[in-house]
TrEMBL record:
Domain DEAD-box RNA helicase Q as annotated: residue spans: 292-320
The enzyme's E.C. designation: 3.6.4.13
Helicase C-terminal domain residues: 540-691
Range of residues in the leader sequence: none
Coiled coil location: none
Catalytic activity: ATP + H2O = ADP + phosphate + H(+)
Family, similarity comment: Belongs to the DEAD box helicase family.
Protein name: ATP-dependent RNA helicase
Protein keywords: ATP-binding, Helicase, Hydrolase, Nucleotide-binding, RNA-binding
Domain comment (free text): The Q motif is unique to and characteristic of the DEAD box family of RNA helicases and controls ATP binding and hydrolysis.
Gene Ontology molecular functions: helicase activity
Q motif (motif): residue ranges: 292-320
Record domain Helicase ATP-binding: where: 323-506
Length: 760
C-alpha cells in the first residue's frame, strides 16, 4: 500500500536536533513526498530481520535510507479499524447515563511499549555493521522476531551471561515447543508487513493538514457528558463497565484534606539562555538514550543544573526528537515507548515557556497559570508534578501544583490560593470542577501558554473527551499544545485536531511494525479455564519469587473489586502484597504507591489506575489477569516493566473465550506458553485461601466481573453465555452458587431475566 501524505515527507538525517537548526545542519535531506512510495517499494521490510543487539554506528552523513523518527504534521495515513470500545460507545453511553441518573454520586473507574527510534537505529546500524566485526551480545533478542530463527540460543542470549536472573518465562515459555515460537515469529513478521510502509523507509516523515476526518462522528458520539465526578480514572470504569464500581459510593473524596501536593524547591532563580546547539552528530548507543546532551539546546542553565542533579546525562530519544520542534514553537503529537522519558520531554520546554513569560507581580495572589498539564490518573498527575519539581530545583520562583480527585474541592481551592503556581498538573474531572466552581480560576487559565495532554490517546478517548473539550475551551487558542503517549491509535490521530493546530508535528519514535513494546521484555500469554486462574497465578508468582530475590511484580485485574479479591487471596497465601485501585482512599493510594516504588520483594495488585505512566523502577514481572480493555491498555500495562531500557517479563492470563483478544496484539512478540503443572498442594492452598476471603468481597468481585464483561462486546452479545461465564468465575472463587444481585442493578446492566442470575 503506498502512502498518501497531504504535503511533504521529510527524510532527515538521524540526528534530529542538528537538522532543526540551520547552524547545525549538516546536510539534512528533504525529499518530496513523492519519493515515499518508491522507497517503500524498494525497502518495504528492511528492518524486519535486523537485530537489536547490534552496535549502533551512525554515520554523520545524511543517509536517505536510515529511518529515524517518523514525524508528520497533521493527519493522514490509513485509519485502523476502530476498537470495540468505540463501537460500544453509544450503548455504553446510554447505559451509563441511566446509571448516573439513579446513582447520583456513582463512582466511575477505568483503569502500557517500547523501542522506536532505537529499534530503527539499531536496525540501520546492524545493516551497516553486519560485516564489521563482533556484534554486541543480545542477538537473542532479535531472534525473537525471527520466527524459525528463534530458539534456545536466542532465548539464552536474551538475558546473556550466567548471572542473569532466571525469568518466569524461562520456567514456562515454550512448553509447547519451538512450534509455537515459530508460529508466533511468523505471524509477527507477516503482520509487520503492510503495516510498516509508512515508517520503515522514511527517515523522518511529516505530513501536514488534517484532511481526513473520517470516523469523527463515530468518535464524538456518546461522549461522557454525564460525568461530573472528580475521580477521573474511575470515570473510565464506565468504559470498563464495572457496574459494582459504578454504583458504589466513593470514600476517597473525603480524605486527604491535608495532603501536601506542593513541592518545595531550592536555589536561586534567573534563567539564562544558552546559544542554539552546535552541530554534533554523535553516534548513538543502542539504548533508549540518545547521545545528545541537554546543554546542546537553548535551555535555562538552572534547568540544566537540575537535570545534572537528577543524574540525566544525555537525552532520551523522544526528548532529542521533540525538544527542537517544541522550542520552535510548534504543536507536537509525540509517540514513544513506555518508560522512555516523555514526561521530561514535555516538562523541560514547558518550563522554558514559564521562564519566558513575564513574572507575576508581587501583589498578584492569583498569577496566571502558564502551563497546564492534564493526566488521566491521580498517580500520574502527582508523579508528573514531582518530576516538574525535580527540574525546577533551581527555579524557586516557579510554582507547581496538583489538582486531582480524592481531595475536597475547598481544600484544593485554599491550597491554590496560598501557594500560587504557574504550572498546574491536573486530572480532567477535577480540573473541570475548578473551572466551574473556583472563583478566579477561569481567569488564571486565560494565561495558559502551554497545554499538555499526557497519555493523550486515553484523554481523547470517549471516557474523557467531554472534559477535555471543556478544558480546551477554557484555555486560550493562542497556545502551544503537546500530546504525548506510548500509543496513538489512528482514530485518535483523526481527532487530535481537537487540541492541536493544523500544522502540528507528529513525532513517532516507535517504529511501526517492530512493535510498540520493548524487545527486552519477554511477553507470554496463557490460556486456561477460569477455575485454574487463581492457582496458576499462585504458581507463577511462586516460581518468579523463587528465581528473583528482588522480585517486584504488578498484577493487573479487570476491575477494582476483582483487584481487591485477588489482593485478599494473595495475602491469605502469605505473599507480600499491596493493592491499589480507585476504591481506596487517595492517601492510601499515595502511600502504597510510594512504598511500592521504593521496595523490593513486593507484589502490587492493581486495577488500571496504575496502567499508564506510573514510573515504578525495576518491576520484574507484569501479570495481566483477564481481558485488557484494549490493545493500548495491554501495551501500557506491560510498559510498567522494562523501563529505561531494562529487562522485564509480561504474562497475560486469559480464559479460552478471551483468546480472541490475541488477534489485536498479533504484531507484538507475544508467545503462547503452555501451562505450568499445578501442584495439588498449591491448588489446595489456593482453595483454602479463597475460603478465607470475605464473602462480601467475593460478591462485589462477581458483580464487578459481570459488569466489566458486559461492556466487552464480543462476550456480552450473548447474555446467557455471559452469565454462564460469570457463574464460572463465581465457582472459581469457591462459591457454590453465584451471589444474588439487586434487581435494579441487573436492570441497569441490561441483564434482567437472564437465566442463571440470582436476584435479591
Ligand atoms: N534523559 C534521561 N536520562 C535518564 N533517565 C531519564 C531521562 N529522562 C527521563 N528519565 C527517567 O526515565 C524514567 C521514565 O520516564 P517517564 O516516566 O517520563 O517515561 P514515559 O515515557 O512517560 O513512560 P510511560 O509511557 O509509561 O508514561 C523516569 O524515571 C525519568 O526520571
Amino acid at each position: 500500500m503506498s502512502l498518501k501524505f497531504p504535503l511533504g515527507v521529510r527524510f532527515i538525517t538521524h540526528s534530529l536536533p542538528c537538522t532543526r537548526f540551520p547552524s547545525m545542519n549538516s546536510g539534512a535531506l528533504i525529499y518530496s513526498f513523492r519519493s515515499v512510495p518508491v522507497l517503500s517499494k524498494a525497502f518495504p521490510f528492511r528492518l524486519k530481520y535486523i537485530g537489536l543487539g547490534s552496535r549502533v554506528n551512525f554515520s554523520t552523513r545524511p543517509e536517505r535510507s536510515q529511518p529515524e523518527f517518523v514525524r508528520r504534521s497533521g493527519a493522514g495515513g490509513e485509519i485502523r479499524a476502530s476498537k470495540s470500545l468505540i463501537e460500544d460507545e453509544a450503548e455504553l453511553s446510554d447505559w451509563v447515563s441511566d446509571l448516573r441518573t439513579s446513582s447520583s454520586r456513582g463512582k466511575f473507574t477505568s483503569e502500557e511499549d517500547n523501542s522506536g527510534p532505537e529499534l530503527v537505529r539499531r536496525n540501520v546500524v546492524d545493516r551497516d555493521n553486519s560485516s564489521r566485526g563482533p556484534r554486541r551480545g543480545r542477538e537473542g533478542q532479535s531472534d525473537r522476531f525471527g520466527g524459525a530463527r528463534r530458539g534456545k540460543e536466542g532465548e539464552m542470549d536474551r538475558f546473556g551471561g550466567s548471572d542473569r536472573r532466571r525469568t518466569t518465562s524461562d520456567s514456562f515459555r515454550n512448553r509447547e515447543g519451538a512450534r509455537n515460537g515459530r508460529i508466533q515469529g511468523k505471524s509477527s513478521e507477516s503482520s509487520f508487513r503492510g503495516r510498516n510502509e509508512r515508517n520503515v523507509d522514511s527517515g523522518f516523515r511529516r505530513d501536514r493538514g488534517l484532511e481526513n476526518n473520517k470516523g469523527l462522528g463515530k468518535q464524538t458520539r456518546g461522549l461522557r457528558h454525564e460525568v461530573e465526578d472528580s475521580c477521573d480514572e474511575d470515570e473510565m470504569r464506565i468504559v470498563s463497565g464495572s457496574i459494582d464500581d459504578l454504583l458504589s459510593e466513593d470514600s476517597s473524596d473525603e480524605d486527604d484534606e491535608n495532603d501536601e501536593l506542593v513541592i518545595q524547591k531550592v536555589g536561586s532563580p534567573k534563567a539564562v539562555r544558552t546559544d542554539m546547539p552546535r552541530s554534533d552528530h554523535v553516534k548513538t548507543s543502542d539504548s533508549y538514550l540518545s547521545k545528545t546532551r541537554f546543554d546542546q539546546f537553548p535551555l535555562s542553565p538552572l534547568s540544566l543544573k537540575a537535570i545534572k542533579d537528577a543524574g540525566f546525562e544525555t537525552m532520551t530519544v523522544v526528548q532529542e526528537a521533540t525538544l527542537p520542534i517544541i522550542l520552535q514553537g510548534k504543536d507536537v503529537l509525540a509517540k514513544a515507548k513506555t518508560g522512555t522519558g516523555k514526561t521530561v520531554a514535555f516538562l523541560l520546554p514547558s518550563i522554558e515557556a514559564v521562564i519566558k513569560s513575564p513574572p507575576p507581580s508581587r501583589d498578584n495572589r492569583q498569577p496566571p497559570i502558564v502551563v497546564l498539564v492534564v493526566c488521566p490518573t491521580r498517580e500520574l498527575a502527582s508523579q508528573a508534578a514531582a518530576e516538574a519539581n525535580t527540574l525546577l530545583k533551581y527555579h524557586p520562583s516557579i510554582g507547581v501544583q496538583v489538582v486531582i480527585g480524592g481531595t475536597k474541592l475547598p481544600t484544593e481551592q485554599r491550597r491554590m490560593q496560598t501557594n500560587p503556581c504557574q504550572i498546574l498538573v491536573a486530572t480532567p474531572g477535577r480540573l473541570k470542577d475548578h473551572i466551574e466552581n473556583t472563583s478566579g480560576f477561569a481567569t488564571r487559565l486565560m494565561g495558559v501558554k502551554v497545554l499538555v495532554l499526557d497519555e493523550a490517546d486515553h484523554l481523547l478517548d470517549m471516557g474523557f473527551r467531554r472534559d477535555i473539550e471543556r478544558i480546551i475551551a477554557a484555555v486560550p487558542k493562542q497556545r502551544q499544545t503537546f500530546l504525548f503517549s506510548a500509543t496513538v491509535p489512528e482514530e485518535v490521530r483523526q481527532i487530535c485536531h481537537v487540541a492541536l493546530k493544523r500544522d502540528h508535528e507528529f513525532i513517532n519514535c516507535v517504529q511501526e511494525g517492530t512493535g510498540e513494546t520493548h524487545q527486552k521484555v519477554t511477553q507470554m500469554y496463557m490460556i486456561a479455564s477460569l477455575d485454574r486462574h487463581f492457582s496458576l497465578l499462585y504458581v507463577l508468582l511462586k516460581e518468579h519469587i523463587a528465581d528473583n530475590v528482588d522480585y517486584k511484580v504488578i498484577i493487573f485485574c479487570t476491575t477494582a473489586m476483582v483487584t481487591r479479591l485477588v489482593a485478599d487471596l494473595l495475602s491469605q497465601l502469605s505473599l507480600n502484597v499491596r493493592e491499589i485501585h480507585s476504591r481506596k482512599p487517595q492517601s492510601y493510594r499515595t502511600r502504597v504507591s510510594d512504598e511500592f516504588r521504593k521496595s523490593k520483594a513486593i507484589i502490587l495488585v492493581t486495577s488500571d489506575v496504575s496502567a499508564r505512566g506510573v514510573d515504578y523502577p525495576d518491576v520484574s514481572l507484569v501479570v495481566q489477569m483477564g481481558l485488557p480493555s484494549d490493545r493500548e491498555q495491554y501495551i501500557h500495562r506491560l510498559g510498567r516493566t522494562g523501563r529505561k531500557g531494562k529487562e522485564g517479563e509480561g504474562v497475560l492470563l486469559l480464559a479460552p473465550w478471551e483468546e480472541y483478544f490475541m488477534s489485536s496484539v498479533k504484531d507484538l512478540p507475544i508467545t503462547k506458553s503452555t501451562l505450568p503443572p499445578l501442584d495439588p498442594e498449591a491448588v489446595k492452598r489456593v482453595q483454602k485461601g479463597l475460603s478465607q476471603v470475605e464473602m462480601k468481597n467475593k460478591e462485589a468481585a462477581y458483580q464487578a466481573w459481570l459488569g466489566y464483561y458486559k461492556s466487552q462486546k464480543m462476550i456480552a452479545r450473548d447474555t446467557t453465555r455471559l452469565v454462564e461465564l460469570a457463574n464460572e468465575f463465581s465457582r472459581s472463587m469457591g462459591l457454590d452458587s453465584p451471589p444474588a444481585i439487586a434487581k435494579n442493578v441487573l436492570g441497569k446492566m441490561g441483564l434482567k431475566n437472564v437465566p442463571g442470575l440470582r436476584t435479591k
